[in-house]
């Protein structure tokens, strides 16, 4: 590979990590033939300044921005919420707000959640006497608790700490293994660092007790002791009896077909991820946990359920693991995330999980309603038309003008946008 000056370039950049962000940017500019304008844009870092970004991850050259929208109309456990959502896809915020509005007639969302329990896994191989080892671990439960809790006095001060130990045994291609689960109450943290530290701390003692060798010591993202559950009722007179039937048919497809179910759950995650990202929580952890939980019965299933109540109204429910933090991670260091948390006003991670799960249910209801009735493209493309106009080359006032004309003609495509743009530019 050569750069603009014909110089050969390699991605093997020794010492790259030691350069300042500006110097790194210069090196990338040269490698990738960036223009001066590209570099200027990358230097505009917004609320998350370059120093903070550079402390957050490695090899930083800039930051990136995404739209932050506010979902309105949410009434959860009798309290009104405004919910910040960070997402690049049009119509998600509007859909969530719309579903929340329709749910208000019947009291909005009723949510509950488990205590913030996370599981740390410690894998032991080469254990000679499995039964005796299990007994020994259980006999030393209190010592293990103590050892783990000593790693995190702050967590313990806030009422968290180890709650239980479970031992699992599995037959594998590489022999029998013991897996010790440390069940930890992580209070207002997501908990990965806290739990991983505890798992590493107690591992040598478990080797001592079992005579085995420890391999992995890591949290599981299948946070199935930390579930959030939400229910909402959509009144048949508000959404229409016919729509209730159509949504139930649509739901049944997801319940019986993995192709549909994947997209059904993707729609739920549109809402969930957007709030998780707004609060700078670990969306990969949430995604992994959600899909794993969806497959817990050995079959990939919808994270929501729908049924009719005795009056014929549509009852929607959702249940999924939500390992979210209000302290730790980037939630307290990302300036916009801090404001997002303030906008939600959640006082605990349980409350945050209940809000996030409500958005997931709302998002799913809105998608099912649109899909089962007029189809999602009408609304989606209307909202997407401005992006199409930009893709076709429109800028400034022309973006809205091109979008408006395409919407009026109900013909939203890049081809049509280009034609309109040419006409307008004449
Ligand atoms: P953390 O270590 O940054 O903060 C948690 C700590 O904050 C606690 O251990 C405690 O000492 C302190 N604390 C102060 N007030 C508290 C309160 N009220 N409640 C609870 N703790 C309080 O963060 P974390 O939550 O342990 O870990 C989250 C981070 O770990 C995320 O950035 C995530 O991306 C990352 N991570 C995830 C995985 C995974 O999901 N598999 C693995 C490794 C790391």
What can you tell me about this protein's structure?
It is a single chain. This protein is α+β, with helices and mostly antiparallel strands and 426 residues long. The protein contains 17 helices and 10 strands. It has a 4-stranded antiparallel sheet with strand order 3-8-10-9. Strand 1 and strand 2 form a beta hairpin. The longest helix has 24 residues. Nicotinamide-adenine-dinucleotide binds next to helix 7 and helix 8. Nicotinamide-adenine-dinucleotide (NAD) binds next to helix 7 and helix 8.
**Category by helix and strand content:** alpha+beta
Distinct compounds present: nicotinamide-adenine-dinucleotide
Could you list the spans in which at least 5 consecutive residues all have pLDDT below 50? none
Q: Element order, helices and strands?
A: HHHEEHEEHHHEEHEEHHHHEEHHHHH
Q: Percent of residues in beta strands?
A: 15-25%
Q: Residue-averaged pLDDT, rounded?
A: 96
The largest sheet has its strands arranged as 3-8-10-9
Separation of termini?
42 Å
- Total helices: the number is 17
Shape type: globular
Sheet with the most strands?
4 strands, antiparallel
Query: How many strand segments?
Result: 10
Helix content: 40-55%
Radius of gyration: 26 Å
Layout: helices, strands, pairs:
Elements: H1 21-32, H2 36-43, H3 50-56, E1 68-76, E2 79-86, H4 92-104, E3 109-113, E4 117-125, H5 130-139, H6 141-150, H7 153-157, E5 161-172, E6 175-185, H8 192-210, E7 213-219, E8 227-234, H9 236-239, H10 241-256, H11 258-278, H12 283-294, E9 304-308, E10 314-321, H13 335-344, H14 349-372, H15 377-391, H16 397-409, H17 414-425
Antiparallel strand pairs: 1-2, 3-8, 4-6, 4-7, 5-6, 8-10, 9-10
Bound molecules: nicotinamide-adenine-dinucleotide.
């Amino acid at each position: 590979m050569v750069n603009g000056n014909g110089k050969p370039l390699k991605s093997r950049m020794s010492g790259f990590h030691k350069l300042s962000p500006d110097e790194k940017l210069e090196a990338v500019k040269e490698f990738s033939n960036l223009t001066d304008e590209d570099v200027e844009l990358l230097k505009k870092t917004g609320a998350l300044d370059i120093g903070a970004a550079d402390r957050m991850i490695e090899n930083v050259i800039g930051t990136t921005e995404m739209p932050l929208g506010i979902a309105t109309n949410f009434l959860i456990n009798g309290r009104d919420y405004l919910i910040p959502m960070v997402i690049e896809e049009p119509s998600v915020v509007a859909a969530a707000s719309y579903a929340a509005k329709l749910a208000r007639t019947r009291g909005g969302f009723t949510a509950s959640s488990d205590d913030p329990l996370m599981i740390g896994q410690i894998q032991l191989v080469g254990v000679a006497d499995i039964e005796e080892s299990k007994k020994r671990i259980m006999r030393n439960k209190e010592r293990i608790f103590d050892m783990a809790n000593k790693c995190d006095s702050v967590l313990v001060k806030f009422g968290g700490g180890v709650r239980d130990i479970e031992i699992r045994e599995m037959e594998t291609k590489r022999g029998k293994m013991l897996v010790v689960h440390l069940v930890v109450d992580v209070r207002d943290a997501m908990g990965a660092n806290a739990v991983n530290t505890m798992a590493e701390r107690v591992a040598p003692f478990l080797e001592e007790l079992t005579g085995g060798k420890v391999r992995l010591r890591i949290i599981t993202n299948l946070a199935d002791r930390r579930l959030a559950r939400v229910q909402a009722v959509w009144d048949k007179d508000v959404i229409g009896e016919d729509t209730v039937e159509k949504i139930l048919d649509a739901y049944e497809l997801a319940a019986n077909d993995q192709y549909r179910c994947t997209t059904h759950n993707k729609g739920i995650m549109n809402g969930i991820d957007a709030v998780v990202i707004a609060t700078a929580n670990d969306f990969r952890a949430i995604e992994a946990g959600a899909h794993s939980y969806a497959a817990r019965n050995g079959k990939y299933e919808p994270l929501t359920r729908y049924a009719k109540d005795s009056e014929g109204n549509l009852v929607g429910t959702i249940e999924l693991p939500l390992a979210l933090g209000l302290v730790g991670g980037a939630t307290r260091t990302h300036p916009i995330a801090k404001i997002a948390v303030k906008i939600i006003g959640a006082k605990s991670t349980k409350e945050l999980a209940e809000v996030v799960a409500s958005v997931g249910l709302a998002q799913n209801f809105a998608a099912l309603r649109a899909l089962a009735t007029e189809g999602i493209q009408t609304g989606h493309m209307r909202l997407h038309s401005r992006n199409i106009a930009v893709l076709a080359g429109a800028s400034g006032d022309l973006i809205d003008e091109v979008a408006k004309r395409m919407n009026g003609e109900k013909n939203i495509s890049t081809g049509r946008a280009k034609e309109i743009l040419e006409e307008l530019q004449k």
